[in-house]
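Hi X.,

You mentioned you wanted examples for the new student's onboarding notes, showing what a folding record looks like when two proteins sit in one file. Here is a clean example. The first protein comes first, with its sequence line followed by its structure tokens.
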Amino acid sequence: MSGEGSDGAALVGATGGAHALEFAAGELEWNPFLPDIHSDPYPLYRRLRTEDPVHWNVPGLWVLTRYEDAVRMLRHPRMSSDFRNSELFEMFRQMNPAFVDDREPSMLFRDPPDHTRLRNLVSRAFSVRMIEGFRPFIQRTVEELLDGFEGREEAELIAELAHPLPVVVICEMLGVPAEDQQLFTRWSDDLVHMLDPMVGPDVLQRATESELAFDGYFHALIGERRKAPRDDLLSALIAAEEEGQRLSEEELLRTLILLLVAGHETTVNLISNGMLALLRHPEQRGQLVGDPSLIRNAVEELLRYDAPVQLTGRIALEDMEFGGKTVRSGQQVVALAGAANRDPAQFADPDRLDFGRQDIRHIAFGGGIHFCLGASLARTEGQMAIGALVSRFPRMEIDTDTPEWRDTITLRGLKALPVRLR
């Protein structure tokens, strides 16, 4: 779970349009839609960091690739998360009037004081204590999923572990009935595409329909919990109160969707990207097999090495400078977390996977006031899933030469990861 659920969400995704990006051959541009870059963005990240670390990009946004600049953007009090402050938003409104939502956005796209109030209320319900209380359930779920691998020669890690684990966990936390969990897969897939740059009308249409489906489902479930509260996160969110304030019905709906979608989408990618890196680096996997206590540091290094959320965006509320270039008020700025996490100015030999690396201050969970609300949950799930998988199947090998990546840009993850277990 990244961001407040998804701090890595690129605000450009909410203000883009249905434009193709076309560049002259050899021209230095950040174009994440090109197949080679989509499958491996890191060579381009290195070039941008070296040649143009504060990069102006079509259709009108700044792209940051250095760690120091990315952290400054994430923590700057005059950087807004509210996409309505972007000068691109009016362009989007004119191009896609049918898809402009006049409702207040989730706390992911809110600034103080509204963001502060919402986050405080949600934090009271979605607490570290609650997450810690779910450790036995997470461990039991991991073991049950891996029991299904026993006696087999092959497995597919996304469909059989990385996806079902966080879905089952966040639904159990929220109090969503087990028989309803499969309803959310398509709805969630539609909504995460809205985080990407340059979304088109077809993506907007599907996302709108899926959000309405989510709204209808949760509206009914909220009604049930108001009448008969249970010991779950949904009941805790309904009851959360601070200085006489509670979440409104609309705020509750937006928060539930945010927690549900972000509560599993990015964790799927954490587990799958992490396992792909392990399978490609047998020496590091061997260290982890020999010393399971390395798992905490290993997961932090895996988050740095191939972040499940590759970029996050803000809007400047005043003119400011990055790398000697002026970002005007109203312009959008995107920090490439995947690039910043491999900045040699911050991490020695950054393209090397090293479980012995110390002081891994990656920004895979964002930063500043929007730092990932669910970072503890994501870390717990990643540590338990990867640790158990490596321990039970130490000789596992990847069973494809060309892993296929999902077609999302903001979120980076695999469609499938077939493996040989023995």
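Then the second protein repeats the pattern, sequence line and then tokens:
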Amino acid sequence: MTMTDYVTAGEPYAQPDPYVDPEAAQAAALRDADEREEEHRRKVEFEAARELARREAKRQADEQEESAAAIVAVRGSSIPVKATLWLWRDRVPLGGLALLAGKGDTSKSTLFTQFAAWLTLGEMKGYYYGKPQDVLYVINEDSLSQTVVPRLIAHGADMDRVSFLKVQRGANVDALKLPRDTDLLKRYIIETGAVCTFIDPLSSNVTGRKNDQADMRTNYEIINNLAESTRTTIWGLAHTRKAGAENVMEAIIGSSEQGNVARSVHGVVLDPEEDGAKMLSCEKLNVGQKHLLPTLRFRTLSVNIPTHDEGWTEAPQIEWLEETTDTASDVLEDRMFGNTGVGECAQWLMNHISANGGYDTLTNISREGKKYNAKMLERARKKAGIRSRRAKERHGPSVWYLPDSPPPI
């Protein structure tokens, strides 16, 4: 047996080809490298030329559109006055885009199932209170059978009034994307009469260049217009950053146009005053008076839901707690700047005013409580139920007094 016949692991032993010229092989390798480099250069030039052509086409289209632009005037007397209709009274208007924003551990998706259940039962206080309605659901991140449906059942939802949406194109079924599928969704909303479409999360179901704010604003405006034209609410879930933001609007991950276009935005945070509790506050409202709305507090309980195989599965259920005056943005600001908790400040304020006969000027309170900033003191005042009034003399000081004390003169 010769060396060329030797076999290792069933394969012939590799021998160098005695007829290959090393110089010719090196030259061939260099030619291959040059060809690859030339091909890469052509691709780069092609992509650059294509991008240049796209920009030129857009410039020409913009110029043509601009040349055809004209002022359109509408007399104010021709515009009818319409009342605001509320999906959720004083919080979420009908006919627009709404957002529910928070970190991943704040039960946002569970809140969505609570809201959906309320609507299907006619229990959401608003335009449809007492009138059960159909809702639509677009969700990509959670299992329907193991997560979403058990949560809906845990809140008593009428499951015949809940529809989960996908889009079929030929043999393929994929996620609904907006604004690509705007016309499809609009027709389905009209056909079913659904009053709300929940999208969890919103950004994953919106197409467009995420780093192009103008493009994203256009897309979110299309979604808002869809809601307006069908007089429904499109309620999207948005994620927020874990740190580094002092308010909910600033903390929203992805395009800021989500919050800019939305007619209402609610924020969810963990309650710093009570373990396991969370806070839901209205952070933006284009209509109504959000400063008059209390912050809702809640926690989640675990309940058993029967499965179709005669077993049981656990699902979270919202339990509503007492309200508060603090907002989600207040909590984020405290975390950002390391402020002392509002509960501690409220206790200090009660003790201080009590020690001063039941009332004191804001100037003196601010001086004595210098460890607390002005916003913290105001939040503590509301939390403790302390009242405020200005002295009768012109430009007189603001006086804070206990609720059971006579108003200062």
